[in-house]
Write a structure and sequence with these properties.
It is built from 11 helices and no strands. It is mostly helical. α3 packs across α10, α4 packs across α6 and α6 crosses α8.
Length: 290
């Protein structure tokens, strides 16, 4: 009997050590608890009374007052609107630029392709402080006034790499024969993209957009270098820490989190439907080869 056979039970199944049934679930639970505790604190203290309208971590009593007066702080509301505008615009631009680049990198072979892949990875791994300082130096060099425009440019520069990687990963799981079959039937490359490739990678495009949106609306470090006099939501909150955070910040954070969860769930549903559709379309080809 070999060493591998000794790891099998009498039914021919891989033997599981008893302790793994307990340890691994506990380990996963602890990790999830570690990541969720700060979010739970934010949600709970959004219902805490604050007599001086400044957040305190001493429980003062339950209230929904801050949900009723969510937009009473004009500067905070303005900063949130600015963050949403920047996130939407920069994410759209990143998707428009990133999808064709991902298609080229995934479906074409050309000189310098490996260098471009390395550059994209480097863009993601570079410290945000370095990226922010570099962008600031660039804007100063070309004498570009800092404001909402430079924030959008900076966010696009970071988000486009995320879009490319996500779309490339999706394209890598697709069979190129689907696109080739469409072209064999007379479809131009543009029509083949809209009728075949586009619908199949649409969940990945949506995921890339939402991840870019999340990175943008949450960014503080890069934005602080290139914002000029423009305040975004993270910059406003960072400034409010010095004098006391109003409870509305936690309420807005809770709402953003809830919206993110809903969108993430919708993305998973779309991805699952896309995978089933892809398997259904590939099944006839597999049967033909058999």
């Amino acid at each position: 009997m070999s060493a591998d056979d000794s790891k099998m039970d009498s039914g021919g199944h891989a033997r599981r050590w008893p302790w793994t049934r307990f340890l691994l679930p506990v380990y996963v639970f602890v990790i999830m608890l570690y990541t969720m505790v700060p979010i739970a604190v934010m949600i709970i203290y959004g219902f805490n009374q604050a007599p001086n309208r400044r957040l305190t971590f001493a429980w003062q009593g339950f209230t929904t007052e801050w949900y009723q007066h969510l937009f009473d702080i004009a500067d905070l509301t303005s900063a949130l609107v600015t963050s949403i505008e920047v996130a939407v615009i920069s994410s759209i631009i990143a998707v428009i630029l990133g999808v064709p680049a991902a298609l080229a990198l995934a479906r074409r072979r050309f000189f310098g392709r490996r260098i471009m892949d390395l550059t994209i990875i480097t863009n993601l791994t570079a410290p945000t402080v370095v990226v922010g300082a570099s962008l600031l130096g660039f804007f100063v060099t070309i004498s570009l006034a800092r404001g909402i425009g430079t924030i959008i440019i900076a966010h696009v520069a970071v988000s486009v790499a995320v879009v490319i990687i996500i779309i490339q990963a999706r394209l890598a799981s697709m069979d190129e024969s689907l696109e080739e079959a469409a072209q064999d039937l007379g479809a131009s490359p543009w029509i083949a993209f809209w009728k075949v490739t586009g619908p199949l990678i649409s969940p990945a495009i949506f995921s890339a957009f939402m991840l870019s949106f999340a990175l943008s609306i949450d960014d503080y470090i890069i934005t602080s270098f290139v914002n000029g006099q423009t305040l975004t939501f993270p910059l406003w909150v960072a400034g409010a820490v010095k004098v006391g955070i109003p409870p509305q910040v936690f309420v807005l954070g809770t709402l953003i989190f809830v919206v993110g969860v809903v969108i993430a769930a919708a993305t998973l549903v779309l991805q699952s439907r896309s995978n089933r559709k892809l398997k259904a379309e590939m099944a006839p080809a597999d049967d033909w080869h058999v």
